[in-house]
Amino acid sequence: MPFADRLVMLAWGAPLALWLGAFFLAPLLLLVAMSFWTMENYQLSPTPTLANWTDFFSIPFYAAGYLRTLAYATTATAAGILLAFPMAFTLAFKLAPRWRLVAVLMLVAPFFSSYLVRTYAWRVVLANNGIVNAVLGRLGFGHVTVLDTPLGTLIGYLTYTFPILTLILFTSLASIDRSLIEASHNLGGARAATLFKVILPSARTGLCLAATFSFVLTFGDFIAPSLLGGGRPPTMSILIIDTVKSESNWPGAAVVAEVMIATLVAVTLVGFGLASRKSRGQP
Amino acid sequence: MTARRSAADVLIDTSLFAFTALAFGFIALPIVVLIVFSFNVDRYPSIPWAGTSLKWYRALLADPGILDAARNTAMVGASVAVLSTLLGTTAAYFSNRWVFRGKVVYAILTAAPPTVPLLILGLSLLVFLNQINLSGGLAGVVLGQTVLCSPFAMGLTMLRLSQMDNRLEEVSWNLGAGEFTTFRHVVLPQLLPALLVALMLTFALSLDEFIIAWFVSGLEQTLPVKIYTMLGGSVNPQINAIGTIVFCTSQILVACAATVWWRSGKVRR
Questions:
Q1: I need a surface site. Which of A65, A155, A189, A212 has the fewest CB within 10 A?
Q2: DSSP H or E run through B115
Q3: Is ipTM strictly over 0.90?
Q4: Whole-model pTM?
Q5: Do A106 and B24 make contact, defined as CB atoms within 8 angstroms?
Q6: Quick one: average pLDDT of A7-20?
Q7: Cα–Cα distances in angstroms (integers) from residue A195 to residues A176, A181, B2, B9, in the given order
């Protein structure tokens, strides 16, 4: 390619690459470097040390926080898939096509609304003097405490992930060849057999992608566990905030952040790997 | 096919529809509650309805902190929208037109930001800005949110470019038009709707983004950060009012974007 053409090509491609290099990659790399730095009298100094890493892996508090976050994200992912699948199934196979568009728009809308504000609205619903308890009191029932419990966190996570999961699963189910399903029916396959032998295998890519997205979003989320879960005991995201805001321990926070990134990269690779693997018997 | 519909079929369909209705209720509930209780006269939600009032909206207008935050949000949103759309469009045109070594790396880099937890984007950017002795402030928020939003702008433009006929450009070059003229008169007119959509959607994303802004903004708050500082303590219907305004603004932007996208799609066919 002539030199002038090369310049033209660079002029188009370079701006975003430079921007992301400067304000996305460089900060992330600095965070990695900083996890090996030392804090001296609340001052950050680039004296190399492994102490931040050994702290993380030797203090049970951190290990417990890690396992708790894994458990929360896994639970939220399992619950999200189990709840989103029947809904996506209904949209894909049962709903009239003209309503399908309305349904999809209703699922896209939350993505462009503030998750923080929606989470706050759940507090209005679930608080001790909130709507649920006002209704229960009116009806003469007792009091329920959901706020500041793991159930509160789960509700927050699902507020975040449920519309996205449903959209992914819907897209996946809608692209299944209908004639396969009809063939299964016509050959006398029972409903369960059609579901497990035809529909679920065809939707495997969508299921794996949805599970990966759900895990990534919930594992890194800070808003649900702190505003609806009460923040105690902490998840990884809350550990980062605590380590920075109360202790100003930047290297410690950097270690927590990197463990999170490593986990998410591993999960994403496995998830995308499973999603793109061809199943036996398929062309 | 209806001949074989048994009672079990009807039961299954009914439960599926009932479940779907409940699920939509779960999605809509926080938004409905937010809007309805922003007009409640009482501080705490009471059953039955105590009375309708605009007093929480009036309280917002009387709060200089809110007005400042709104102004900051508008400035940040506009800057992020323009920068993300510029960066996203140029990158999309680049990826769409040329085959080059490292194309996969480029694709991964430009798709990566939305997959990193916002908390880590915010933390790393704050650390980085401190280290190069730039205090964050609103400029820092713009830097970070543009990282987050450019991939969306790029995706939208890529989608539109992939539907365009590349031969039009070649014809223009063959007729002697240069790079600039061809882009200006052949590509840009077809791309305009996508750019408009990208501007509106990235503005909407920036308007709602809280975590990066919270980390980097320092003393200059955007609306979501202001809302977060108001959250401490008890139920405060002023948050419902400001949340309602933010929600409606985003949805109007998204509705406009969707209309532009559809219209432009129809005209072309």
A1: A189
A2: none
A3: no
A4: 0.88
A5: yes
A6: 91
A7: 12, 9, 20, 14
